[in-house]
Amino acid sequence: MDQDISATQYTLGDLLYLMERLRDPDTGCSWDVQQTFATIVPSTLEEAYEVADAIERGDFNHLGEELGDLLFQVIFYAQLGREKGYFDFNGLVSQLTAKLIGRHPHVFPDGQLRAVANATNKDDVDVKAQWESLKTKEREKKGDAGVFADVPLNLPSVSRAQKLQKRAANVGFDFESPNTAMMKVREELQEVEHELQQMQGGRASEALGEELGDLLFSVVNVCRLSKFDAESLLRATNRKFEHRFGNMERQLLTDGVSVETATLTQMEAAWQAVKALDES
């Protein structure tokens, strides 16, 4: 008789034990035994994106499951670390707790987790400034030189652009407002247009590619200064495009033509029709 797993309430300790069993070289799972820190990184990134996707789609029925999958990645790394003698899960939790206590002196003024909270709280601007100052000191203590020293190279490019810009802004290298940043966008757009005019035989130059990159970077600046997360905005636009394109395909089929055989004029007409429905 199959066990009803929904009736069993497992604990964090059970999950850690399960991971240890999976990694047992004699009785564990052959796939899990073969994994290394490097080989599970793609899965970690995928699980993080699935969490973000569930939140952005408002799919809270499945968010818990996605968060569990992401937690399992941490458990996996902790088991690998324990096997190598680098760290273990309890050590990770202790280090994280201590770090967060230190980064929130306005909540834990005496550095003690269970101490009574301070009645006077700082506003959001002060908290962010304090947070960045403490993180800077932590980087210096680790020996990380430079403002961008610990910005991960494998962040999505849009996210990394925004993080680099925020770091630069923390030391005063920034535009005064979204409007002044927009002036830079217009400047970069003119340079892109100039390079497009220089194209010969439809072949793009390296200079055009560089100017397009500068334009993208400048648009991220406008997003950041307007208090938007550029990566989230682009993901939302991707979803909107995907949704409308799917509706356009269905509209064309209703008209008796497939998207593969439709002319550009037919596709544009169907696109405008579904766009009008979305905006009505």
UniProtKB/TrEMBL annotation:
The keyword Cytoplasm appears for this protein: no
Entry keyword set: Hydrolase
Stretches assigned to the NTP pyrophosphohydrolase MazG-like domain: 35-108, 177-244
A single GO molecular function term of this UniProt record: ATP diphosphatase activity
EC number, UniProt record: 3.6.1.8
GO biological process, one term: dTTP catabolic process
Top enzyme category: hydrolase
Hydrolase found in the keyword field: yes
CDD domains: NTP-PPase_MazG_Cterm, NTP-PPase_MazG_Nterm
Name assigned to this protein: ATP diphosphatase
Organism of provenance: Simiduia aestuariiviva
Biological classification of the source: Bacteria, Pseudomonadati, Pseudomonadota, Gammaproteobacteria, Cellvibrionales
